[in-house]
Amino acid sequence: MRNITTGVTDEIDLACGMSGSHEFIFTLVPIVYGCNFVIGIVGNSMVVAVIYCYMKLKTVANIFVLNLAVSDLTFLITLPMWATFTATGYHWPFGEFLCKASAGLVIFNLYTSIFFLTALSIDRYLAIVHPMRSLRLRTVLYARITCVVIWLFAFVLSVPTALIRDVHHITNYTKVCGILHPTVENSMILKKLLLAISLMKSLLGFLVPFVIIITCYCLIGRALLGARQIQKSSRSRDDEVLRMLAAAVLAFFLCWVPHQVFHLMQMLTQLSLERNCAIIEIIDTAMPFTICIAYFNSCVNPIVYGFVGNNFRKNLMRLLRCSPNGVRVSHPSISSKMSALSFRASEGLSLTAKSKASSEEK
């Protein structure tokens, strides 16, 4: 893109035209956004209600899951605006403040969601592989402090994205919520800032957390497989937990990889001195659909981390039936299966160590 004038509110010209502007995008993407909004609001609201009403914030896993659901809810409230923006042919009628706030909330949710998923993975690793040694670290106080740090760190990382967003006039009747356009004075600074934001999004928003999550789940799987050799009777429950962990990793990977790939391609085109309009057209056409897939992660999280638990489903049915508090029955937390498995896994590992020691004595 290039500037016609230096004023933000004046019209600008696009070097490659309105690339990615197709009628099927303007029709299909808003529908997907609407479905994501409804499913995500209902699912995450149920998670918040069930944890608050029945499970309480007495375990580390519950605290992280609750914060993850709140993070998704703060993002989902922006989806109607993005759906309107796409349905009207990329016309932004909501003003400059909501443009900046909505763009900032998207990146804010990206970081908070992935950071809380990473925190959950580390907590599960400590609970299953090092259940006794990690008791001092896995407390409610430390979990709440971790949540505060995650919220603040994600906010700091999302501020630059909000600052570089603005409303631009493409024509007399089309206003776009997009990044600031370079001028002669700020061209180099803006390019470096965009590169830094893109690198942080790729590294801190995907690659580093993904490596941590994969590492944690691989170590968990190795510990469970070792414990299974000692306790054959627990195989079915072990398999269920492994499937749950695999589903979490798979959902994270499938939802975010397509967007990150095209985001990397978009970053490379921004760094290129020459504009290849054919490649830009492909990226701009595919990007709305990769964003839809990424946004769907906010709908998957309640399913993976909440609805797969039997106790969560029981408490959800109590909530839907409006059961009185007076007949409340004590139920384990969302992590009850994993907590029970932590003891069996550590017991199995200790039995393995004892058997090796006894064989050496003989």
Poorly predicted runs: 1-9, 233-238, 326-362
Number of helices: 11
Radius of gyration, whole Å: 24 Å
- Class inferred from helices and paired strands: mainly alpha
Placed side by side, the strands forming the largest sheet appear as 1-2
CATH class: Mainly Alpha
Overall mean pLDDT stands at 76
Element pattern in H and E: HHHHHEEHHHHHH
Per the principal axes of the C-alpha atoms, what is the gross shape?
A: globular
Task: Tell me about this structure.
Helix 4 (95-129) runs parallel beside helix 6, helix 4 packs parallel to helix 11 (336-361) and helix 6 (187-228) packs antiparallel against helix 7 (235-271). The protein has one domain: Rhopdopsin 7-helix transmembrane proteins. The chain is globular. Strands 1-2 form a two-stranded antiparallel sheet. It is an all-alpha fold and 362 residues long. It has helices spanning 23-55, 60-76, 79-87, 95-129, 140-163, 187-228, 235-271, 277-295, 297-307, 310-320, 336-361, and strands at 165-169, 175-179. The protein contains eleven helices and two strands.
